UniProtKB/TrEMBL annotation:
Membership in a protein family: Belongs to the sodium:solute symporter (SSF) (TC 2.A.21) family.
Gene Ontology biological process: carboxylic acid transport
One Pfam family this sequence matches: SSF
CDD domains in UniProt: SLC5sbd_u3
Protein name as it appears in the record: Sodium:solute symporter
GO cellular component: plasma membrane
Domain of life: Bacteria
Keyword Transmembrane helix annotated: yes
Organism: Streptomyces himalayensis subsp. aureolus
Transmembrane domains' residue ranges: 6-23, 44-66, 72-95, 116-140, 152-173, 180-197, 217-238, 259-283, 308-332, 359-378, 384-403, 410-431, 437-455
PANTHER family (UniProt xref): SODIUM-SOLUTE SYMPORTER-RELATED, SODIUM/PROLINE SYMPORTER-RELATED
Amino acid sequence: MAVDYTVIVVYLAGMLAMGWWGMRRAKSKSEFLVAGRRLGPTMYSGTMAAIVLGGASTIGGVGLGYQYGLSGAWMVFTIGLGLLALSIFFSARIARLKVYTVSEMLDLRYGGRAGVISGVVMWAYTLMLAVTSTIAYATIFDVLFDMNRTLAIILGGSIVVAYSTLGGMWSITLTDMVQFVVKTIGVLLLLLPIAVVKAGGFSEMKAQLPTEYFDPLGIGGETIFTYVLIYTFGMLIGQDIWQRVFTARSDKTAKWGGTVAGTYCLAYALAGAVIGTAAKVLYPKLESADDAFATIVKDELPMGVRGLVLAAALAAVMSTSSGALIACATVANNDIWSRLRGAVSRKGEDHDEVKGNRAFILIMGVAVVCIAIALNDVVEALTVAYNLLVGGLLVPILGGLLWRRGTVQGALASVVVGGLAVTGLMWGYGILANEPVYYGLLSSLAAYVVVSLATKPTDAAVLAHWRERLAGRGGEAPAEAEAAAPSAAGA
């Protein structure tokens, strides 16, 4: 394992070095939080694919392939569909807004007062996403070093917190680009063909496994529909995803770069399912389907290659974890804390934006590691987060982008009614049931439409300003625009 250990250590050291390099570039709020809004197509596509394809997409995707066969690709496939929908239909408008958070978009569209509650919901979602990603370090480091769970979480979490705190989005962008390359080589170019060959090829896999393993809909229509509601729609509105859209240097970059990333996700989904199907042939009686990835890597790959593929799994986890962490800190600082100290700001006190955001990443990072150590049931935690996100925020966000008649009262009613409905239904049906997100989303939509029609339309001046921002006019504050000097980053 010495060669494998060397590969992993070099990879981790590289992540920290990029954090140090990013610190030298992040001199303004725009540079720190959204990489100066100047990523070109190559870097944008790579980093967007990296953040959406995390540990759940890699380890969990292979596990679903082990359990259901090719139809196990549907979870990651719906993530790719969501990214495609976001990129083709909404990303250009989102990028032109020049905001930092989803809640700022809601305030712009509805004329203020909508962002506070939505900020709390979005903060809870990004926090739990970061926590569940951080817990995944325990699985990977256990395979690598037979490491204690708590120590593994502290080690992996500390590295992510360190490079994220140092350089903000620049560090995360650079590390995500490396992680994208490592995942592509490790999973698509190495593990996929090796797993198929070890299993005897597709003909042997078909001979060894039941026919339903090769049924594209074998996982079940209801499960696929639930994946679409949670993951496809979740991709449309998550702060972690939007914050990457904000890094694009143009609306065309956001649209076409995101389309490339979404297409890559579809290929990654199929690859994970095929690897899991091959693992079922090789190891038909594993205790847990989620052990399939680690088992096939540990037992079937040669040294060096094994280290690279494990580094790919680590890259998948780190990219999602760092993206969720900076999103969580951005929402906590800009949407929640900044409103609490708003009165102080109006008195003219000068606040160091970079220093403040860096402090919030550190604070949120420590909180994430502590919660990850204490938490056991990550599936339930992530389900709660996604249900609240989709049930509470999908309607007012998409409604604001698509329906002019929507009002701030309708948006607030939608968030509150949808959030309470999802919470109550999870209590009644169970956290992992499908009904909470179904009925929560319907109640959120009903509240939005009814209250919006029953209240005074949004002020014409607010809508005029909104249209100006959507058109790409009246963007960032002059200080930020001046700080963001031209760059060829991501060409």
